[in-house]
Amino acid sequence: MTTYRLSGKKKSPVEKFKDSLDNIIDLFYRFGSPMGSQKDYKLLKYKEQLEALIKERTDEILDLNKELVGANEQLYTANEALTIQRDNLELTLNQLKDTQNRLIQSEKMASLGVLVAGIAHEINNPVNFISSGIFGLKENLDELFLLLDHYKEITPENVTEKLQLIHDSGLDKNSIELIQIIQALLDNISTGVNRTVDIIKGLRDFARNDDKTLSLFDIHSNIETALLMLNNKYKNRITIIKNYGDLPEIEGFPGQINQVFMNLLSNAIDSISDTGTITLSTQYIADIDKVRISVSDTGGGIKDEIVNKIFDPFFSTKPTGAGMGLGLSISYNIIKNLNGEIEVIGNYGKGAEFILTLPLKQ
Question: Across 8-17, 53-62, 341-350, which has the greatest mean pLDDT?
Answer without folding.
Answer: 341-350
